[in-house]
Amino acid sequence: MIVGILSDTHGRIPGTSAALAALRQAGAEYYIHCGDVGAEPILDLMAGLPLVFVWGNTDYDQEELSRYARKIGLDCRGELADLELDGRRIAVTHGDRTDILRQIVTGRKHEFILHGHTHVARDQVLSGIRYINPGAVHRSPRPSVAVLDTQSQAVRFIPITTSDGRREERTETDD
After folding, report:
1. Which domains does the chain have, with CATH numbers?
2. CB of 8 within 8 A of CB of 116?
3. Residue 167 — pLDDT band, cuts 50, 70, 90?
4. Euclidean distance between the first and final Cα of the chain, in Å?
5. Would the CA dihedral through 120, 156, 8, 106 be positive or negative?
6. How far apart are CA 123 and CA 90, in angstroms?
7. Is 123 helix (H, G, I), strand (E, B) or coil?
8. pLDDT tens, 3-52?
């Protein structure tokens, strides 16, 4: 199975549209958003996709966003998703909560931890668990997403640009 991974969209529609298009083009069959969704229009872009997402530290109105996600059929797992895809145990969290990361590592039942938060692409094995951060759609000098092939366990990072050829980079007005 090809899993498309994105994170840190921060409500940015052009970047998220480009990210989802890049993942579709890469053959994604299932999508995982690692938090900092940002706004309802981002959920609209993901509606209809086989997808799960978790909250990030800037998803402030979680109650309203949860209600909206349910209304449009999206699967929100709170701050931690425990998935089994194609026989692989995968934990998904935003990455800002060390207590959640510690809980995953201590449990020793996952092969992968998918996370965001740092806005830096990562593929690293620590304590026998493979950490994958797809990078960030927004607030990154090099916006990116990633695909994970669950059979071969290959990870590929994909740079993204908006439809007008610009990257979704941080602006002075961002918080």
Report:
1. 2-159 (3.60.21.10)
2. yes
3. low
4. 36
5. negative
6. 14
7. strand
8. 999 999 999 999 999 999 999 999 999 999 999 999 999 999 999 999 99
